[in-house]
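Sample pair:
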Amino acid sequence: MRHKLLVLLGLIFTLAACEVKTEAEKIVDKSIAAHGGERYKSARIDFDFRDIHYQIFKSPDRFEYTREFSDSLGQIKDLLNNEGFTRWIDGVEVDTLSEERIGAFSRSVNSVAYFAFLPYGLNDPAAIKSYLGETTLNGENYHLVKVTFQQNGGGEDFDDEFLYWIGTEDFYVDFMAYSYHTDGGGVRFREVSSVVTVDGIRFQNYLNFKPEDKNTPVENMQELYEKGNLELLSEINLENIQVEFLN
């Protein structure tokens, strides 16, 4: 009996140890809660970005991203979900896309969805979060969290690196920086320019900066930003945002 009790206690302690979260995980959890929390799990979000209409849904075990726009070929609809990527032109499915084109279209759709849903996606199973400590930027205090991805489940761009400046008081993501290797590679720094809250979910628009040298380490971006050594490349603005809760 005593032996069984010891085994049971050992199992309980082992399970408890497995559930202990790192500092980075705790901060990200608080940030997700501040931006929308549980609402993300059942929300289907529509918005326009650069004359393209997007519809985004992402739950813990399923996602479905669509975009629709018109070009010289006709009315385009792209769908990216757990099963893969599909394109329709004027309602007819396109079955002649090369793997290269499928990869490019998938990355494009996924990128917009990823940034629109931040910080919700930071708890994806493939995300590896590291706490780099506290820092000050523009006179405000931030937790600095680094996110990388496991190759298994991390997608084609699993080797991208992200930094998030998360407020120590409100846990909002006010700044981010990331390096990427697709499409020639580069590094970016984003600053929140405006905020819209719709049905309890916080959506952020950004000023998008780049350094002179695209091979700049992502860890150097804060210093370059503070010195005014970044070029404003574009503005990231979501328009006509609508939220529908599916259950």
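The helical segments are 2-18, 23-35, 99-116, 221-226.
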